[in-house]
Each structure stands twice: as structure tokens, then as C-alpha cells.
Design a protein that fits this description.
Layout (H helix, E strand, L loop, with lengths): L1 H33 L4 H4 L4 E3 L5 E3 L6 E6 L6 E10 L10 E13 L2 E7 L3 E2 L17 E11 L5 E5 H5 L25 E2 L5 E7 L3 E11 L16 E12 L18 E2 L2 E2 L11 E2 L20 E5 L5 H12 L2 H6 L6 E5 L14 E6 L8 E2 L2 E3 L6 E9 L37 H17 L4 H23 L53 H11 L6 H5 L36 H23 L7 H22 L5 E3 L13 E3 L2 H16 L32 H16 L2 H9 L9 H13 L9 H18 L7 E3 L2 E3 L6 H18 L6 H19 L1
Parallel strand pairs: 7-15, 17-18, 17-19, 19-22
Antiparallel strand pairs: 1-2, 2-3, 3-9, 4-5, 4-13, 5-6, 6-8, 8-9, 10-12, 11-12, 12-13, 14-16, 20-22, 21-22, 23-24, 25-26
Helix pairs in contact: 4-7, 6-7, 6-10, 6-11, 10-11, 10-12, 11-12, 11-13, 13-16, 15-17, 16-17, 16-18
Amino acid sequence: MRLLTAILLYFALTAFSFTPFALAQDAEDEEEEDETVYLAEYVEDFELTDGLFPLYQDPETGSLYMGVGVDQLDEEFIYFLYTENGPVEAGHFRGQFRDNRVIAFRQHFDRVEIEAINTNFYFDEGSALSRSADANIARAPIANVPVVAESEDGDTLLISADKFLKSEALHQVTPWRSPDTPPGAVFSLGSLSSDKTRVTEFSNFPENTDIRVEYVYDNPSPMNYGRADITDARSVAIKVQHSFLEMPEPGFEPRADDFRVGYFTDQSTDLTSHSYTPFKDAINRWRLVKKDPAAAMSDPVEPIVFWIENTTPENLRDTIREAGLAWNVAFEAAGISNAIEIKVQPDDAEWDAGDIRYNVMRWTSSPNPPFGGYGPSFTNPRTGEILGADIMLEYIFLTNRMRYAEIYDTAGLPSFSEATPAHSHGPHCDFASHLQTEMMTARAVLTAQRAGREEQEELVRQELFYLVIHEIGHTLGLTHNMRSSHSVTLADLQSTDVNPVNSVMDYPAVNLAGEGENQGLYALMTPAAYDIWAIQYGYAPEDADLDAILARSTEPQLVYGNDADDMRAPGRHVDPRVMINDLSDDPIGWADGRVDLIEATLALLPERMLEEGGAYQPLYNSYMALTGQRAGAANVASRWIGGVYNNRAAVGQPGADRPLVPVPVEEQRRALALLNRTAFAPDAFSAGEEMLDLLQVQRRGFNVYGINADPKPHARALRVQRRLLDHLLHPNVLARLTDSRRYGGEYPVGTYMLELTDVMFAADARTAVNTYRQNLQIEYVHRLIRVASGQGGGAVATPSGRQGLPNYDYISRTAALASLEEVKDVVRRRTSDSETRAHREHIKELIEVFERR
């Protein structure tokens, strides 16, 4: 009883002692919660930069705050981000356009969130389905920050800009890496440092707010130190610019995309449409409005103005200006005169190239160049209207520099990689290896032909002109057109009166004539037939007959195929006419002539390239470029095997072919014969062998340490052959030979593989096999075994999930088994050459091991 009394007394005293204090504390908290922090008082000592979103900076700490008007809440804005500076190995480079989307600021009680808006879908407001427009589409609140103050009239909310800008909330600055990448295999950024990351500068205008942030990544124990452009792998800074833009004024009419002409698009799918193709994709184009809409030809109200950055070498400015103005010819076909103006940025300009109000042609000379030219633009994703653009030009395009990382067996060879479509919202236009190698090849050919300085300078002028006009084409909205070269005859390449291709948006080879032949244009110097037609479709007035313009797409000079169609990567796509690094309507014939030109040049090169007292590096670089071009010519020819012409035309369009037409069998066999001569025959790599002992890399300190920089002709030859076999024996190619027989094809896969096997073995079936061919034959047998066993390296879907099942079809496997029988007949033959005998025993063992499995 006493214990119970004591407990009750304790709680009574406790309640009496603490309740008043707790009540007082609660009252104080309520008073604090009710106390509003007003913006004017909060920013009293801050520096104001007024504009679309007013910016306030604390002059002591540098902290940055942003004002958001209540009338701006729930309104849509355009968010755009580009890299101002950063190393290529970290996934960045100056001028790289990285993000372009629609955002909205929304208030939720005492916080403001930034939401990324999904613009991929369209709902007709007249449909009841529009009421469910947000169903099953993920909302994306990418940032959420507290309101730190508000104006007394309640019209403005103040938030910390540092909170969402000094993190990766708005954009992932760190490049994505596959989780399967082994540690240290590639250079990687460390962790974002909150202490070192800082806002470096900002500017504000009525229609846009721009803020530059330097993101710093720390990695105390890097496993990969990167190349020379990584100053210190433990701390890497990347500077980007965040831009917030007001939505453009109304009045711009979106123009529908059409598959027959190549424009970048902002895509939207109509989820209320019954169409088989419910696409409301808008092409990317500038707002060009005639001053006099009734006139057949009129200047625009506002032209497209490009500025040549003051970093551009002065001797190049005239050519760049001429190339930009050349596009006015195309706009005249759309009824607009003087559509483009080119100006030079004054040396004392108060704005820099990063100011998004200016469209700038910028010049860089990078240690690890990511491109030769790059022409992105940013848009209003709702309409496709282009709002701004920059063009980046890389000085390596004009140099003879070759990276030490590209030693002997890889240098100068085509990458055979996947395409990288050029656009502001995606990968860049990668002209680096293409244009530089083309230029190095052309210089070597002209040197061997004893061309004078004037001719060398004309080559540079034409190729620079082409580079600029190509990149400006991207900024006007145009995609690549990798098929345009196929609309010019082989004979016309030698004429200076005929364009070597019909679009500046192509990736053609440089046009080179043999010694004693007439030299046509090295490169295209004006928008050609396709370009003029494409601009006409994109920029003709709203009342123009667009259907009539599109109906011309079947004209031979207007053919089109973009990166999504080209066959640069083994086994990818079907139409060999859509290809890079080729020329003419007869790419096989052109490749044959290209090989002759290269081999003739190689024979002359040592005598005409080397200078007394000089280095061997010029010869080395030229050899690499030339033999790489020979491999590229073979690559072009290989795509005709198993090819199918894919024709873009609407149903019933006059002049249209059937959509899918297999490549004639005689063309496929012609391509195989060229491959034999160029890459597979016993003497395929004999041209240039007499200079192997001269191919010395210029020594520079320890830069070649560990590389073993002696010539490796066998490794280089085998690399070329393997890349060709990647295509010639690709599961898609072999299956297509069988499938296409059901709609006109005449080349059975069994026949093809026996003929390919004959290429590999017939020439030396009764003679000694040289070391190039020994490598090739063993490689080929390994691949035949993989085909025969169905080991394609891919996974297929099954009812129980994805499994690593063979992806070579049974018809191809049967053909491979038949080819292995042919090989067995060859290697059984007796020979007196001990090296050949051992080689054939090796092949026999490989086949016998396969047969015993």
C-alpha cells in the first residue's frame, strides 16, 4: 500500500513539475511555426541578379538562392544542360548538349519540388480518355527543397538553388557504367564532393536563367589514372551549365515527321488514336517567318544567326563563313532569302560562347578529341521548335596527329562500331576518326603523287567547308543521310561539275583520283539535291503543298537512309547502299579502284614521304591511314553479301520500288571476289610490306613503354579479317540468305558458305600456306565450328525465360557442317612443306575434337 501511494505521489509531482514547462515549450514552437520569414529581410545583404528566376547570392558564403513566382508554379519551363568543360574519359567535352526536357515547379506545403514532365504521349482533349492521361505514366519529382522565405505579398517563394544544383538531382553528371565493367578497366569518377562542388557563375535574362556549376569528384585511391587530360585522378572537375527557359511565345506550328525525309524529331505517341502508326512526332526546325508572307521570296522576320567564336584561327574564318552562308541556297527553295547570317564574335565581346542566346561556332584543340565536328541543337519538346544551337569544331581534323594508344595493329583501322546518331538529346556526331583518317589518307596520296602546296591547301579548304556545312545541317534539324552517295555514278566522281554525293549529311569517303586521272571535287561544297529538298519540306510556308514535296522522294537524287539503317556494324541492318565511307552507285567498283589507288600509293610512299634528317613518324601515320582505308574498302564490299535493298516510299507512290528487294546474287559474288583480293588471298597484304622495317614510332620519353612498338603485320591482318568474318558469318546474315529466298533471293546459304570456304582454302590447296593464310584458315575453321554447333553467343526467349541457346538457325548449321567436310578434304592432302603440314594437322585436330564432342 505504501509503495502504491509513493508511486502515485511521484507521478502527481512529475505532472505538476513538467506540464507547465511542456505547455510553454509547445506554445513557443507554435509561435515559431507561425512566424513567417519574409524574403526582403532574408536577402537584405544578398546581391540580386534579376531575370526569369531572380537569383540572390550571399556575398560572404557564396550561397545561391532562387526566387520562384507563385504565378510560375505549375507552369511549364524548358530545362537545358550542356557541358562547358570536362575530360572526354569522364564522359564529357566542351559544348556537349546533355539534357533537354520540360519541367515544372510545384509547391507542396512548405516545399517546392521540380518535376520532369513526360512529353512522350499525347491525348486528344476531345476524348474522354484524356481524363486518364496520367494513368500508368510515372511522375518524376527530381528535386524537392524547402521554402526558406516568401515575399510579404505572397507572390514569391525563395528556395536554395544550391540544394538542387550542387547535387545530381536535375541531371546525372557521372557517366553510366555497366556493372559488369571490371574495376580499373576504364577511368571512373569518384564520389561527388559537397565541399568542393560550387556555383562558379550565373547570368539572368527575362526569358532564361543560366547557372554554371563545377562538380568535383574525389577518388582517394583510383585504380585507373586515365590519360594525360586527367590532371589528377584523385580529383576531377566537370563544369556544366543549367539553363531554365521560358516557354516560347505561341504561334509556332509543329510540322509532322515523315519517314522519307530525315529530320530529328521530338516524339509523341497519340494514346487516343486508332491508327496503326499513332505518331505525332514533330520535326526539329527553327521559327522562320517571312516578312512578306504573300511574296514568293522574302527575307525572314528574324534570320538564324551564327557567330564564329573569337577562338577560331583567323585563316579559317572565311571558309567557315562561306560554308554557313551556302545553306541560303536551300532556304531559297523554301521561299526564304537570307535565312542564315554569319557574324564574328568581337574580341571585346561581353558575352561568351556559353550564352545560350547566341548560336556559336566554337573551336577546340583537345588532347583526346571526341569528334571532328559536332552540331547539336536544343528544342521545345512540345513542338520541335529549335531554340538554340552550337557547332563544335575540333582542330585534330586539320592535323596529322595519331594517338600513342593506337599502336600498329589497331591504328587507322575502321572501328566497325555501332552508329552514334547526332542530336542534342543523344550521342554526338562522331566525325573524329572518319574525317581525320580521310584527310591523312588524302595527304599521303597527294604527297605520293607529288601534288603542289596549292593542291594540298585546296584539299583542306574543301574538307573544312564540308565539315562546317555538315554540322550546320544538323543544327537546322537534319539527320545523317548515309545513302546519298549511292545516287552518283562512279564515272561522275572524276568530274568537277558533278557533286560527289547528293547530301552534305552523308559520311562519304574523300574523293581521290589515281595518278594521271582527272581529280573531281574532294568533297561536297554546297547543299546538294537532297539537302535542298529536305529544307524545302521543313521550312516551306504552312500553306505549302507538303504532300507534293514528299511525293518527290522516289527521285534518284533524293534517296535517304540514316544511322538507324546504315550497315557499319557487322550483322546490323540490311541495305548495303546505306553505308559510311563509300562513294558512287557502284560501291564495289569504287572499293576495287580505291584498293588500287592505295597500293600504288604505298609503293611510292617511302621515297616521297621521308625527308633527310627527319623522323619516320610521317611514314608510319600514312601507312596506318592507307592500310586502314584498304580495310574500309573491304568492309564496304562485305555488306553486299546477304544484303536486301530497303526502299522508303509510301504505298502506291509513283516511281516506288517494292519495299524489300534482295541484292542480286551476281553482286554478292562480285563482292566476295573483291574481299578475296583485298583481304583473304595469299598476297592480300603484300602491298607495303617493303616498308615494314621503316615503321618506327617517334620516341618521346617513355611514351611507348610496354607497347612493343615493332611492326605486327600478322596481328593487323588478322584483325581486319576477323572484322570481315564478323559480318560474313553473322547469324543475321546467314539467316537472311535463307529467308530472302522466299521473296526473291537466289543465293542459298549452303552455296554461299561453300564458295566462302573455297576463298579460304582453294588458292593454296596444293601449295605451301603462308603465315597470313595460316592465321586466316585456323580462324575460319574455329568460326565454322561455332556455326555448326550453333554457338552464336546470344540468348533467346523461351517460355521459361531467357536462355543461352544457339542463335544460328539449322540451315546455317547444316551449311557449316558441309563446309567442314570440304576443309577436311583439303587438309588431308600431302605436302612437302613442313610448316604447311603442321598447320594442316592443327586444323585436322580442331575438326576431330569437334566431331568427338
